[in-house]
Amino acid sequence: MTRTVVISGGGTGIGLAAARAFAADGDRVVLLGRREPVLARAAEGIPGAAHHAGDLSRPGDVRRVAAAIGQEYGAVDVLVLGAGGNGALEPPVAHLDALAAAAHEWTTTFRLNVLTAVLLTEALRDHLATPGGRVLFLGSIAAYRGSGTAPGYGAAKAALHPYAFRLARELGPRGITVNVVAPGLVEETGFFGGEPFPAERLRERIAETATGRIGRPGDVAQALHWLASPAAGHITAQVIQVNGGAEHGH
């Protein structure tokens, strides 16, 4: 049976890899994000894919996108909350003192990673397939270890955990599972705003893994795909680490 899979942040990186994995299995994918040209290019490469552009941290945009999805598809079988980031793609703000800069960074990372996920989930929760629906949040190893580049990022990703756990309790009676997938460093995502990852730090990150490499978008996409399958129907309220063992360090 063809499922409807809604993926926020579906235009690039992990979200796009997930869209391709679901589409390859015959599912219908709907890509969401802020950048219309990016979404359009991504959708062109995926048979049957649709896309809707909007700022998912704005209630009005989320309301519009959710209404369009509900009207066109009815039930949402899989909801992947992949929109987020560390703020590297945000417009720079000049002339901030240290306190104002901290407030801006933390507000931005929570808006990008928490508000986008919460608003879209709340807008679509009544449309989730019952039973069998799947809600999948994209977390991060930074929720456990912090982030050296953006301290607020790790805290924002950690904030998804209690929300996901509560949601799992609320939606469990409807036969819906809710989980978080937490990647480590992943290549080819645009996470750092197009800047190359420093070579020395890359060697350090690789050394922290048990697999001797950093992650690829497909590693995370396949974990998401499996958690959305019937085989994972009794797995809920979990944080699944996809980082080659890097959360344990050396």
UniProtKB/TrEMBL annotation:
Gene3D superfamilies associated with the record:
NAD(P)-binding Rossmann-like Domain
Query: What family, per the record?
Result: Belongs to the short-chain dehydrogenases/reductases (SDR) family.
- Name-wise, this protein is SDR family oxidoreductase
Domain Ketoreductase as annotated: residue spans: 3-189
Which PANTHER family has this protein been placed in?
Answer: 3-OXOACYL-[ACYL-CARRIER-PROTEIN] REDUCTASE, CHLOROPLASTIC, SHORT-CHAIN DEHYDROGENASES/REDUCTASES FAMILY MEMBER
Superkingdom of the source species: Bacteria
What Pfam families does UniProt report for this protein, alphabetically? adh_short_C2
